[in-house]
Amino acid sequence: MARPPLLTPPAWLTAGLRPAPAPIPWAAVLRASVALSAPLAVGMATHQTAYGALVSMGALSGVIGDTADAYRMRVFNIAVPQLFGALGVTLGTLVFGEGWVAVIVLTLIALVSGMISSIGAVASVSGLLLLLNAVVGAGLPMPDPWWKAPLLLTLGGLFVLALTLLGWPMRRAAPEREAVAATYRAVAELYEATGTDAYDEKRQAVTASLNQSYDLVLARRARQHGRASSLVRILAQLNVLIPLVEAAPAAHLRAQLFGPLSPAIPAAVRELADSVEEGRTGAPVLDLPTPERPAERAVDHALRHAAAVVLKADPDPYNVDDRLGRPAALRVRARRATRAVLFSEASWRYGLRLALCIGLAQALVSLIPVPRSYWVALTVTFVMKPDFGSVFSRAVLRAAGTAAGLLLAALVLSAVPRGWWDVPVMCVLAALIPASSAKGYAFQTAAITPVILLLSDLLNHQGFDLVLPRLYDSLIGCGIALVAGYLLWPESWHARIGDRLADAVADTAAYVGRAFGSEEDQSGRLRARRKLYRDLSTVRSEFQRALTEPPPTGARAAAWWPLVVAAERIVDATTAARIRVDHGAPAPDPAEVAAVERELRELADGLRGTDTLVEVRAELPGDENGVLAPLRQEVGAARAIAGPDLR
């Protein structure tokens, strides 16, 4: 096997420079183009170019934050961060040019921004805009009086929101319905993959699709008073998919032993997906093979039940439960979030890291004789978002993306005359943002950089002279983030990914006991399984992020990766055994269940708190013809992986 050239960069360094295979969101492209260029046109027409630039800057924040699918969630995702952004620019404007006062205020804002970012996705974007706009307000001269800048920025965000809601009257429930239909199609692909090596990949796709569908539907239900028929119908169609998903591991095992399933099964699931999306009702007509084995009976029963519910004209609103649990009241969630922020070690740790980096950046540009620039702190803010990816890789990608964006900005600022030509140029540049964001962080940075530079030029009129200083500022900001936000914190380069995996394995052990216990009700077991799959999906994402870190973290994540896959396979095998028992297979001996559970807990204990994989036993005797035999094989394989030779 030929060795790669010595000068070839490592994969963890170049992973983010490859564009992700994602379709272009044309609606978002058109929306961004209008949202950022129209305010500029209005500003120039009224001879208030600076005002138009500020409205466009607020629209840019709205475009970046518009990541949800359901309309109600999009209102929340755009409106709430805009309020934090308005507060941020107000505080920044009040300390503009104030030296040490600006350093202290921005450092405190960074602490708060970092801490609230741990609450959730909307809070993370809100914390980002709070800090970003505070940095911009402290670094650029804003129009007087102080309230104009936050008002204009908020108007830009509201303009994006208005454009977003234009389709609400016609597509009120379409995003939720389309998401549920997409989940049905993902399940159809899962059944097509049973018995093949593609099964694990398709199961991960089903998990992600289920998470998205439940997030959309339950978020809407949390804001819906009463029981609207359309919402009840969507939730019933989603809930009834769970037995089909549960039967899939048993079908996979059956396909491995006896050959592929009938193609009529995935075809029937796709037909149900079309019925969900189009809102069709009527009597179900299914042409399915006669089931003979427990796994086949489980699939047949789940599919016929799903067809009956999907095609029913009016589901019983009092027979529709939330398999993941209905979201708690807003008051309860606010109290939990506040407690998590104030008493979480991780929240304080990230807040302090971000505050240190912003304090250093602001001190550098405010107090040391270098060209004054808000771009250093701006770069630090974007790089130091750990929930968006690895700090190290984001610093590298930020530098690469900024260099590409500055090259484009240099062409624009040198070749395009200032004035009305800025409007069509902004129209094109803004369209690149949503088109590039799905491709990766470096591509998003390359698209946003020329937009911000063009808007900055409309505020301070520096023209081409902006380009090179911004490149230097970006490199300085990346350097501060790498040193003060990464290298000085051992947890960054000694990530305790083993602890997260150990927790998942321990939860898997608890699920094995619950699956065959007599005290847990059916809905409790289903909720536990869904929560476990969601947690494993999170662990998988954390490991994928760790793979982009430099050694030793990246190398350790690569070594431990097979255990993540093994934990998912153990959950599948447990579910398959439970389904087979429910449809006629002999129940396992409780002692055998206890032995499997004990082995998993020992594996979790062996993984917890260690930086290298530890040697554990791989033997797990039991009934080779029993329903737990495949589960014991998966547990044995997981324990064999955790050996001393894989480090």
TrEMBL record:
The keyword Nucleotidyltransferase does not apply. Residues 93-252 form the Integral membrane protein YccS N-terminal domain. The keyword Oxidoreductase does not apply. InterPro entries: Memb_transporter_dom, YccS_N. It is a multi-pass membrane protein. Keywords: Cell membrane, Membrane, Transmembrane, Transmembrane helix. Residues 361-483 form the Integral membrane bound transporter domain. It is found in: Cell membrane. Its main location: membrane. The chain crosses the membrane at residues 83-112, 119-140, 146-168, 350-371, 391-412, 471-489. GO terms for cellular component: plasma membrane. PANTHER family: MULTIDRUG RESISTANCE PROTEIN MDTO (PTHR30509:SF9), P-HYDROXYBENZOIC ACID EFFLUX PUMP SUBUNIT-RELATED (PTHR30509). Belongs to the YccS/YhfK family. This is Membrane protein. It comes from Streptomyces vietnamensis.
